[in-house]
Amino acid sequence: MPAVSNPKRTPVFRLLTIASSGIGSFVLGIWGLKHGLGAGFAGISADMMVAIMAALCALAASVAAMSFFAGVDESADFVFNETHFDKLTGLLARPAMVGKIAEAACVTSRTGEPVFLIDIDIDRFKQINDAIGYSQGDELIRAFTRRLQDSVPARALIGRIGAGEFAVLLPDHQIQGTMEGMIERLIDEMMEPYELSSHQQSVSLSVGIVAMPKDGVDPVLILRRSNLALQHARASGVGNWSVFDSEMGRVADYRQWVESELHTAFERGDFDLHYQPQLDLPSGRIVGYEALIRWNHPERGMIPPMEFIQIAEETGMINPIGEWVLRKACNDARHLPDDCFVAVNISPVQFMTKDFVGIVRDTMRATGIKPSRLELEVTETAMMQDRDRAAVILKELAEMGISVAVDDFGTGYSNLSYLIDFSFGKLKIDRSFVSRIDTDSSSGAVVSTIVGLSRALGVSIIAEGVETESQATLLRAAGCEVVQGYLFGRPAPLRIGLGGGQATDEVRRVANLH
Questions:
Q1: Do 262 and 315 touch, CB atoms closer than 8 A?
Q2: Helix (H), strand (E), coil (C) string for 267-290
Q3: Phi and psi (nearest 5°) for 275?
Q4: pLDDT tens across 383-405, in order?
Q5: Does the domain at residues 92-243 carry the CATH identifier 3.40.190.10?
Q6: Which residue among 21, 363, 380, 503 is least enclosed by CB atoms within 10 Å?
Q7: Which numeric CATH code is attached to 267-491?
């Protein structure tokens, strides 16, 4: 159904309104004339005049009432259409789609026939809209709508439930062939380029599917679960689709719990730092410690960083948590031997904050740590978010005397030109290469190449994730002499004694072997 225009009064409505006003004015005029001219007027007696005026008043009142109720009906129609239909496409709007899902849930609960909700989202639609302009974006949505209507069964209900998100409500008996085949065909057809007035636009899709009554009958819950399936599909790559399963719900519930608990955990002081030693193989000496955050929840125990760091980044909690980590690591570094540094991981979100360099400078001033004893580990992804700004930040850190290590080197950005533009002091070979160096010749070749690259650039090199003697031996043979990993010590709270931070017996024992 097409969207309805604003509730402007129709010509008939305006005519009735004008007529009623005119009649009312006429009656008032007659009334005035009567009082002005006495008991009669133009041969008409006063009683007859009153009767005529009463009839005209009744007529005017009835016409006014008709005009009013016509306007009420028209406004009610407008409000209904405004809330139930999308203006741009004429499809069902989200509130109406929720109602249709509720109706379908009632029917499927009674008949047992499955009804599927197919959640279709245009990936990165906001970025597309910003790039091509809103008018072209609207044109894309209209073209997408027309093709979607042609691609699904004729009696399927379609709604637009987000800027670039659509929902299709489809009973099982309307599906021709298998669900898998239909979805694959739908994705292929919908991802064909769209001919817009100014250019040809390509899109990619993610699709999530939920089935009623198997996955529930609450319309709000059904929409949430279809979106969970959609997010799972998006994480799997371009043009994918996924069917909801209960594990997605558990993951989402856990994520929500983490998100709601992070601020409380920070205020409560749940976080702590553990330190993993970094060892120089030729001398067997510990040269530094990497600070690694740990969350010890009072009820759930230790929560791994991989389960909360990304959520902290997305919610903005990474900034206060990151500042706390930097400050505590710098404070703890004062208890390490003078020739040891502390390495601190910097989140991409934290790295690109407005005054990151100022925060580092203030922290060093407050803790009294020397710049040579602080190393910041930054990923390639963080540096490539805004190359110009990243170059300025790295230059300022280098001028302060702070070393920056490129963390997880070789797993992120593919264009190595940034190595020339950026100021950094160390490359860190990712554990994914180290874990296979003794079983995969290609990994060994990559490690040797990274070592050679670091020498050519005049920067240091370190390998992480070393767990076996064989890996350590091959790394040293390749020219990588500084390592860290479980072979040399697991992350642990810093042991502070009279002599400063102490290496564990395990570190000393393994170091002596090399």
A1: yes
A2: HHCCEEEEEEEEEECCCCEEEEEE
A3: -125, 135
A4: 888 888 999 999 999 999 999 99
A5: no
A6: 21
A7: 3.20.20.450
